[in-house]
């Protein structure tokens, strides 16, 4: 059964690569088959998972970092995986026709397959690191797909906006997950849930929780991060149906649900999720009523759906988990179907303004059937599964205790708006007075019809036999949400209860709104003030300010002045050393011993003289000679301190230095000195003073610490017995630390090659 | 600037003297001050004298191998000197091995000398390459 | 003795930094030479000075005599000296290349090459030189 876990992902990854190389004609049918195959493979796992057993597979890991890297298929994952592959197959089939002769179909297929694979990986990940990697991959795929029509500026802008918002959320999520994993001591999700006490008791527990919530909110378009979703409608319609309503945007909901067992009793978690979810649902409903563009209307209703889901996760458990899962499925069915219908309408009529379309049922009856099936589910009318979902949602809200009144009132408004919009998208579009369209519409081919019809019928079937649907899919998924098994028997008919009254009132209110839709829209659209504020504007402001700020910072840091780079380098290094010495008590001034100084004292005096002379030298030749003096003094220092090897090396190198410096000088113009300004001279002298002072103090600090001779003694003692050599320095170089020396002579050889390469290019230029 | 006749005629002699000294320094390096680094520098100084007196082209001709090739050869020799270590399965790379064949006296032969020869050649090649590049023309 | 060398190392370091910060690139290269020398002395000094006897085991003896110099810093510094040579030689070649391409050895003229439109200064209109002295 492990194949149900690994095979779909492996298949998707292989197919992504294969699709790129495929002729456009075959790409989308191929993608469809891959998705369908993955769907069937996953279906295979349903009985086992419904029995309560998660299927796990471990395929990578970084044990040294405590990353376990596993995959796991439990009820929640399976539900998502089935949605991803099932809707994927329908959408890919649809897209093959939608993009009929687009030459970029191979690329499209590769990206959607990559997206599908990433989604499967994200929902099956049993490890927050794996999850995060796949999560970010889905954002990337979304970026490519939103910007698919990259020659349009709006598409590019929308793609970047979607990437920045979800990617920024991704950063918050990463920080949150790292904190959570650190507190739990494991990256495994099952481990984190098991360690919930530790996670909740950690010092930064709430910060971690909020960071995770931000990440999920950005992904799932919750207020105030909802604004990228409508703009993402710049993507081709199949993409909107797939990524931006049925799957990717639900990933945030998925992770909230996944972590719910950890936080479900936390007040802040409940509060943030419930109220932000409700606010999102209301905002989406309100904005959806303002729009007439079919895709934007659907985008805002998706925002509403996502808000409802988040709110349901936030409502203290019991029934809300079941309600959330049912609503998730229902929403995926009808919303994907409606998007596909919108795509057909757009494709066939050449326009997608809901207020200017009508009476399409006469020319496209099958499309109308699909739209009506989906819309009835959206409106929550029996016998559709949407009705089951709506009843459950109401019931969950009624059970939620203190806040029940507010939640139900909010839900009532939202649902009424959904009823109205469902009416617009089905009855108005297909049955109201016909209006002229740029193209003569007719039903599209079967490939484009299959998706909406199958999804619509699924909504009807699931509503008809809710108990089967409940025990196979919903209960196992809800169990993952609560961390304990759930047994809720779904039913279409609840008897006469306050719920039924509420449902009837909702529909009545919705019909009222539907009748007033055109006038209401005009009023709402006239509220232009609304566009002047809000997070979308804030995004523009921030982005507008960011670019000049980045340019300014870059200009400040990358100023291009070699001397200022070096000044910064030396100043930071020496101040760092000085400050550390001062604060760690490292400054130790030595006591000068009395008596005759060591006769070798002439060596340091020579060093100082040479260095000072190099600075004061008026000509370059004099400076080179002075530097040679320092070199020879160094050699003498080595010689009189028992280091003949060093002394000879230093002599040889110093001679070569003087020769090559002089040789370079011959090839450069000697004319003119390049004096510094007095101000520069002061600055440079201060930095040089800092550097010199830091060096001396550092060395004095070293000399003040007791000398640890163990290593030197060991080398001295082992040199003859172990390495048959009496020159200990040489033995260290060629034997004890031979690998080190090998590395160093490699550096030398590379330097020689670099010199030759640079010179060759000079010769090429001078010849040219 | 034309080098004096004395320098020109003595440069070959000087070169071979310096090379002889460098080889001596290389060989004795394991037991007395010296070794591949110093040996390589001394030999490079010999080549430098030769190049200054007879020109860059003559120096390159005399070397036969291009300095960069000397570098590569040195690296190869040094890297290869570590391979016999694998004769002993327990030893790591660059664990040097010794043989003491008895030919009248005991001759100490070991891979460290090979390694030092690699260092010698690399240093000679590098310094010569850089020197000849900069004093070109 | 050690204290005097520590002081001298500091002064050599200071002088080298001052040279490295100068405008003439040959002086910068000289500064690099001095700086690497100072670094080598610093390492050598950290292993302590004093003994005049080189770290060579007496013939027949099994281990290094107690009054011999410390071999470890010597091994570290020996390679550093040769690598320092390689570094400076490379710096000089870059400097030559810079002179041939840009026609300048003034560090302040090099800032032009870091701009995106990095045409060689020689073919660009002369800009007012910063802090012309």
In total, how many beta strands of chain A? Answer: 2
Q: Which structural class is indicated by helix and strand composition of chain B?
A: mainly alpha
Helix content of chain A: over 70%
Number of strands of chain B: 4
Give the averaged pLDDT of chain A, no decimals. 87
Pick out the low-confidence regions of chain B.
none
Provide the low-confidence segments of chain A as ranges: none
- Global geometry of chain B: elongated
Write the SSE topology.
The complex is a heterotrimer of chains A (768), B (137) and C (133).
Chain A: H1 3-20, H2 24-44, H3 46-50, E1 55-58, E2 70-73, H4 75-98, H5 105-124, H6 128-146, H7 153-184, H8 189-194, H9 196-201, H10 205-219, H11 228-231, H12 237-246, H13 250-263, H14 267-290, H15 294-314, H16 319-349, H17 365-379, H18 385-398, H19 404-431, H20 446-464, H21 466-482, H22 498-515, H23 517-525, H24 529-532, H25 535-557, H26 562-583, H27 602-616, H28 620-639, H29 644-666, H30 678-704, H31 710-723, H32 728-736, H33 738-767
Antiparallel strand pairs in A: 1-2
Helix pairs in contact in A: 1-2, 1-5, 2-4, 2-5, 4-5, 4-12, 4-16, 4-20, 4-21, 5-6, 6-7, 7-10, 10-13, 12-16, 13-15, 14-15, 14-19, 15-16, 15-19, 16-17, 16-18, 16-20, 16-21, 17-19, 17-20, 18-19, 18-20, 18-22, 19-22, 26-30, 27-28, 28-29, 31-32, 32-33
Chain B: H1 5-28, H2 36-54, H3 56-63, H4 67-80, E1 98-99, E2 102-103, E3 105-106, E4 109-110, H5 111-134
Helix pairs in contact in B: 1-2, 2-3, 2-5, 4-5
Chain C: H1 2-20, H2 25-46, H3 71-102
Helix pairs in contact in C: 1-2, 2-3
Describe the structure.
The complex is a heterotrimer of chains A (768), B (137) and C (133). Chain A is built from 33 helices and two strands. Chain A has helices at 3-20, 24-44, 46-50, 75-98, 105-124, 128-146, 153-184, 189-194, 196-201, 205-219, 228-231, 237-246, 250-263, 267-290, 294-314, 319-349, 365-379, 385-398, 404-431, 446-464, 466-482, 498-515, 517-525, 529-532, 535-557, 562-583, 602-616, 620-639, 644-666, 678-704, 710-723, 728-736, 738-767; strands at residues 55-58, 70-73. Among the domains of chain A are: 287-522, no CATH class; 528-558. In chain A, helix 4 (75-98) packs antiparallel against helix 12 (237-246), helix 15 (294-314) packs antiparallel against helix 19 (404-431) and helix 27 (602-616) runs antiparallel to helix 28. Chain A has a two-stranded antiparallel sheet with strand order 1-2. Chain B contains five helices and four strands, in the order H-H-H-H-E-E-E-E-H. In chain B, helix 1 packs antiparallel against helix 2. Chain B has helices at 5-28, 36-54, 56-63, 67-80, 111-134, and strands at 98-99, 102-103, 105-106, 109-110. In chain B, the strands form two sheets. Chain B has a two-stranded antiparallel sheet with strand order 1-4. A two-stranded antiparallel ribbon of chain B has the order 2-3. In chain B, strand 2 and strand 3 (105-106) form a beta hairpin. With 137 residues, chain B is mainly alpha-helical. The two termini of chain C are 42 Å apart. Classes of the chains: A mainly alpha (768), B mainly alpha (137), C mainly alpha (133).
